[in-house]
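Forwarding the complex inputs:
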Amino acid sequence: MIRYVLKRLLTMIPTLLGITVITFIIINLAPGDPVAAQFGAGAGGGGSAQAEGSGQGDQDRLADTIKAKKQLLGMLSEDASAQAWTPNTGAELAPLTWPGRSSELPQWARSVAVSEDGSKVYVGTKDGSVVALDASLAEVGRWTGHHPASVSAIAISPSGQRIASGDERGNLRTWSVDGNGPVATAEGDGKPLGDLFFADDDQVVTASNSGIIRVHRFETGQFIKEFAHHIGAVYALEEAADGRFWSGGIDKKLRLWSLDSATPLQIIEGHGQAITDIEAAADGTLVTGCDDRKIRLWPATPDGVGEPVVFEGHFKQVSAVAISDDGQTVWSGSRDESVRQWSRDGVQLGQSPENPGQIRDLAMLGDQAIAAGDFWRKVPIYSQYFSWLYRTATLDFGRSFVDDEPVIDMIGRALPVTIGLNVLAIGIIYLCSIPLGIYAAVGRGGTFDNVSSFILFMLFSVPNFWLATILIMTFSSERNLTWFPSGGLHGTDPWSMTYLEWLGDWGWHLVLPIIVMVYGGFASLSRYVRTSMLEALSQDYIRTARAKGLAERVVVFKHALRNALITIVTLVANLLPRMIGGSVIVEYIFSINGMGKLGFDAILSRDYPLIMAITTFSAVLTLAGILISDILYGVVDPRVKVDA
Amino acid sequence: MSGGGGGASELTGGEGQGYWAIVWVQLKKDMAGMMGLCVAALLFFTAVGAPLIANDRPIVCSYKGNISAPAMVSYVDTWVPWRSLQFQLKSFKVGDTLPLGDHYEELEGLTWLEADETEAMDWAVWPPIPWSPNQFDKNALKERPSDAHWLGTDNQGRDVLARMVHGTVVAMLVGIISMSIAGSIGITLGLIAGYFGGWIDIILSRITEIVMCFPRFFLVIAVIAFLPPSIVNIMLVIGFLGWTGIFRLVRGETLVCRSLDYVQAARAMGLPTHRILFKHIMPNAVSPVFVAVPFGIAAAVLMETSLSFLGFGDPAAPSWGEIVSQGRTYVSQGLWHLTIFPGIAIFVTLTSFNLFGQGLRDAMDPKLRQ
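Prediction (whole assembly, two chains):
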């Protein structure tokens, strides 16, 4: 017996592996971004621009979720580093070369600044650290634990001795290059700081998503001046000559300010969407990146800027731009995960050879562009599979995209409901079908046999969703009867009930769903019982028993039924696979929060971690059911031992 | 390979040296089975003739002295996938007739029904249900059964009876084609696994076990939800996930046949493997499949209607499940006709195929022969 069970367990292993392979393949082939349905326009289709006014936060969240899907599937591994890109001179439109990555940063780099002499690079990271790198991008120091959120902007003072950094909750920190901690801290209003720069060594200008530009003192962090003219978030700032500066944001207008006056000197229109980044060359040439997927180069004129040259090529929003000091080369990074290099008149000179990740910030270091962004590495398919297998084996199914809750917890809540319902249903099916089948078999060809098999056969052909709809229409509709509730498992206030009341309420809610779950099973099971009883009753030992003069009751229930039950018991396993599949409709119609409804909702909202987990879970449950039935078979039928 | 059609051709063909003739004689004795077969055949012909039964165009009419058959346009629109060929077919005419085309320009902005009341239309033979499945009757939203709409209308004013007639097409298509796909896969793999045995058998049987482990309905919804909603995808998915039962049947039969003398003889004569498999073993190994086919069609119809009930159906193709789901949506308004009638159609279809399957099983079982 034990040998038989062990052998059966061994043959299960390839099947289990197969189940994980199939789940893995299905989700890998599943097209589209997982949360496209949730976020509406602009989520999945590379081309469509985000709806106007949707904040940077939403977009970031969307991008994070897409990455989360890829990471969940093991398609990518997080690769925290800043990258340097050099132009491949000589060849026309040659791809950019990719010389190197920095040392591993604590987490993804979100912002980058290069000192004027090019000797130091400072990087702000997603976990709130500021990291100092040397000219070859090797780490020389870091400050961690001072920013509570990811560092979205960073700047170096003209002298190169002072640094300022701002984070996504609007907090400003100022640093001295040699210091151990911040010189000053200024707490923000919770809105991200989009950009900042040093007006001089003592004044830091910050742009906030709340739409206000502020001038802070370096030493104290206090703000001394405010510029409020923007409508909506300000994403970009850039210093201009003579104490003036540029700003741009979600209101699509470029503004030129003087530090001395509270109103903008000049307002320039011409952007199709929010302005995401502004950079200036030494001669005053201005480059802007925009959410309309275009880069605009504004040549310098004595009284500001002239007509822009528009660079087109990115297929998602441009998130960062940089321009070389001589104003001849422009770099751009985008949400389409590419870094591109352009000549001054808009000819694309090169493009990054592979998709490194979403670019957040760019800065020039000599003729190189340093990119900060969410960098990922592709993972070969076999190691994708093995990491998925490992996580499945450890029951780590990740978090739901929709509810941001561990998937295993959600299943842990839904599975008992479904199993409870099904155990109840299967119990009722067995309790009713066995007597029906026995009675039909004993009186074979009689009225009861004919009528019951006819009725059950008809019931078998009734679609369950139809019966459910009719039951709701009849018994829980205002128009007809309101005998039963139309959905849920409990009334409005289950907590205040006593246990008996609670149980009664539960049973009352269960009547309709259970009817829908059981009626189809009667037909097949009672038919099986009838057949196997007939077979048992036609055996020689029954004739012997009758010949001995045993009571008919004893013959039927003791001699025939026992043998007939062998096949009937094993049928439990056939009912198991239908559990979750069959639960979908019943739970959907009666709004019961079990596995079926969980799975249905997960499919509708493309909640990949949940779909994967439910598919795997139910397949494994089914396999377990088959195993149990095999073992049961071995228990009730001693001949199996001989076969094994 | 419909349950009825496939069986019938085998029966009259006499290929099985009397076996199918015996089955036919047995089946004829089974009232219920024959009724199932007749209703199934009736459903099949309803599906084939759907555009002539429910249509907003006349079957034949004489318009300004020209004879035309406008209802045929529906066939061209439904079954001809190429636009250019559609155009050619619609502009085809014989002698003194109108081409099929739409003719709404000639009708002076009227529908065919309105044109029938003008003098321009001399006579017209109308389909029994003068509504198309996707035709909106703006004056009769959510109407109860009436003279104009025998089984009422849905929330957009579409005739329920017309949608049900055209829903037969979807049900029959899904049932028959997905069963053909499942049958071909199951028979081929089953023959291979049973005949070659060894590693091939082990691998194929493992694969079958894996596919059987997945809750089929859940898997079908998952796959359908990721694909664009179309009836072709529904047929393919149901077919590609439904072959496991047939595989097991055929494999078992092939295992038996393999060791029989006539197969040994064929092998000894040096016949090529594919010939032994498909010419000698298959005819003997597939007979249990014929029993599985009607049940399989019923299961596929049930699955398709369930899918469209849940909203995963093809929005362009009227389906019974979709109408029932409307009835559920408007349950508080008491639109009972939306639930009852299409449900009866599903019930009748399932019953007829199940009855026929049961009759066929009894007829093919030598133990039950009278």
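The longest helix of chain A spans residues 499-537.
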